[in-house]
Amino acid sequence: MAILIIGKTGFIGSYYYKYSQIKEKKFFTSSKNKKYYNLNLIKFNKNKLSNFIKEKKINKVVVLSSISKPEDCFRNKKNSYAINVKGTKNLINLLIKLGVYFIFFSTEYIFDGIKGNYTEKSKAIPSLYYGKQKLIIEDYIKLKSYKNFAIFRLSKTYGFKINDGTLFTNILKNQKKRRILKVADDQLFAPVFIKDVIKIIDLFLEKKITGTYNISGDYYKSRFQ
């Protein structure tokens, strides 16, 4: 059997491509790179994708593809809704129809951040438009009479490549340019290392673990700390 990773060229997809330790055969999609199966969530061909999944004997899928920057979702609501909600719903419908196991990447932004210390049982009340889009998909999946899936509510994720634009590499890059960084001292978060995320993905795919999970680092700090 094989695994399909939807979203090769994004931050998590690009790291996963290089550092996953899972032994099963993997296929990747991209809307930008022609080397991989072309998949645009706004206008993908359901029959073509269905035939590809059957032909390659894919029985596990990781759904990474989305517009994931909250500011981009807010600035272009129509386009982000078309990808993050409409297109993703169509994709989820197809995966359920084919009976494959899938992991859907949601976000910590389904919570408004007022209460803090959230668990998987905490009530989701998003304040950001991006969080609202992800919660729509979470609820949509859970309304289906289908249990063969996992949902990851991912915390802020950081990498280790100098140009990946993530938390610590971005601080280093700005510090080299002697830029003053303004950061919050009253916002607590628990960032997670990308290689830990990859290990979690591999484990869930190997064991086909189901359910909804908040994925974060071990310790929480303020942005200033």
What would your notes on this structure say?
The structure is a single chain. β1 (2-6), α1 (11-19) and β2 form a beta-alpha-beta unit. With 225 residues, this protein is α/β, with parallel strands linked by helices. α4 packs parallel to α5 (129-143). The mean pLDDT is 93. The protein has helices at 11-19, 46-55, 70-75, 77-98, 129-143, 167-176, 194-207; strands at residues 2-6, 25-30, 37-38, 58-63, 101-107, 149-154, 157-158, 188-189, 192-193, 211-215, 221-222. The protein is built from seven helices and eleven strands. The strands form three sheets. Strands 3-2-1-4-5-6-10 form a seven-stranded parallel beta sheet, with helices on both faces. A two-stranded parallel ribbon has the order 7-9. It is globular, with a radius of gyration of 18 Å.
Average pLDDT for all residues? 93
Number of helices: 7
Radius of gyration over C-alpha positions, nearest whole angstrom = 18 Å
Order of helix and strand elements from N to C terminus: EHEEHEHHEHEEHEEHEE
Total beta strand runs: 11
Distance between the termini: 45 Å
Task: Give the structural class.
Answer: alpha/beta
Summarize the amount of helix as a percent range.
25-40%
Shape: globular
Write a brief caption for the model.
This protein is 38% helix and 20% strand. The protein is of the alpha/beta class and 225 residues long.
Describe the protein's topology.
Elements: E1 2-6, H1 11-19, E2 25-30, E3 37-38, H2 46-55, E4 58-63, H3 70-75, H4 77-98, E5 101-107, H5 129-143, E6 149-154, E7 157-158, H6 167-176, E8 188-189, E9 192-193, H7 194-207, E10 211-215, E11 221-222
